[in-house]
Amino acid sequence: MSKFEDFAKLHVPGDPLVLFNAWDAGSAAAVAKSGASAIATGSASVSMANGFGDGEEVPLDWVLGNASRIVSAVELPVTIDFEGGYATDPGGLTANGRRLAETGAIGCNFEDQVVGTDHLYGIVDQAERIFALRAGVGDGFFLNLRTDLFLKAPAAEHDSALADAAIERGKAYAAAGANGFFIPGLADLSLVERISKAVEIPINAMHLPNGPSRAEWVRAGIARVSHGPFPYMAMQEWLTGAARAAIG
Questions:
Q1: What percent of the chain has pLDDT over 70?
Q2: Cβ-contact 112, 148 below 8 angstroms
Q3: Pairwise CA distance, residues 111 & 102, whole Å
Q4: Which distant-in-sequence residues (6+ apart) come within 8 Å of 235 by Cβ?
């Protein structure tokens, strides 16, 4: 069985895969020692750890080199936060997807925001982008489609209408070849459950400080929980405190 197949089978609604996101080969190796089943990066963590802003400010060659180093450092399946694919045209997405797959990564996150703006691609346009990226990465690659609907809207506007908009996108992305659907920013468990019941591919939630517990995600039917930038932020806080204690 391939690493892609192993990884895909870890996505079980009600028994979610937990991804404690890493940012480089060293952090990936540390997470692997915990007994993790897979390694995932987070673009914000990678950016902050290396002096870049988020939103595809990390050069593509550096992203791919980092992916290769992580894959070489661990035996586990590795999925990369590939943001918007580092291209707007289909040819660029296919070429970049091919390069990403060549690193040995078996999956990636691919978002529907127009990077650098407050806008999202239309559903038809994003479906075409999924087709283009799939052409590059091949069939044995887990495309986790992120919708930015709940990141762009304040929590007070997270309602059934927005959940239904997410469901429409999730179904369209699945039809275009997505393997998973990521809904970061949404913490209303009734809406999470609504989406997980309506969209036929595994649903990925983002762990949030003071947000739902793992047990609550389980009851809502989530198949994957990502920790995003929070492991990096916690490490930075620990490092500052440890340094302060040593210096003081």
A1: 100
A2: yes
A3: 21
A4: 27
CB atoms within 10 A of CB 162: 17
Helices assigned H by DSSP within 138-222: 149-152, 160-176, 189-198, 214-219
Both tokens of 28, joined, read 């990936």
Q: How far is CA 102 from CA 95, 96, 204, in A?
A: 11, 10, 25
Residue with tokens 């035996």: 75
Q: Is residue 68 a contact partner of residue 45, using CB atoms and an 8 Å limit?
A: no
As given in the structure block, the two tokens for residue 55 are 């939103």
Three-state DSSP at 5 gives helix
Residue 60 CA to residue 93 CA, distance in Å, equals 12
Can you tell me the distance from the alpha carbon of 170 to that of 164, in angstroms, rounded to the nearest whole number? 10
Give the integer Cα–Cα distance in Å for 19 and 65.
Answer: 21
Check pLDDT > 90 for residue 202.
yes
Q: Give the residue-averaged pLDDT of 125-152.
A: 98
Rounded Cα distance between 181 and 174, Å, is 8
What span, in angstroms and rounded, lies between the C-alpha atoms of 161 and 164?
5
- List, in order, residues 6 or more apart from 234 with CB less than 8 Å away: none
Does residue 180 contact residue 200 with C-beta atoms inside 8 Å? no
Taking residues 213-240, report their average pLDDT.
Answer: 97
Dmax (CA) of the chain: 58
Tokens describing residue 121: 């691609």
